[in-house]
Amino acid sequence: ESCGMSVCNGKIFILGGRGENGEASDTILCYDPSTGIITGVAAMPRPISYHGCVTIHRYNEKFYHS
């Protein structure tokens, strides 16, 4: 709930949001629709929620910004 989402290379990245306890999360998850698997990718420096997220492509490099 209240997370940022972005699509890159056919995968959906889910950043932050709020858990069942209502507290903000610092987790970055990756959902691969081809396998149906959700994987924890990284932790952000601080928990965030109610934010925006975009994927920026630059010279074939992928950067995530939230």
TrEMBL record:
UniProt entry tagged with the keyword Nucleus: no
Coiled-coil parts of chain: none
SMART domains linked to this entry: Kelch
Keywords, ordered alphabetically: Kelch repeat
Keyword check for RNA-binding: no
Protein's UniProt name: Recombination activating protein 2
Organism: Cirrhinus mrigala
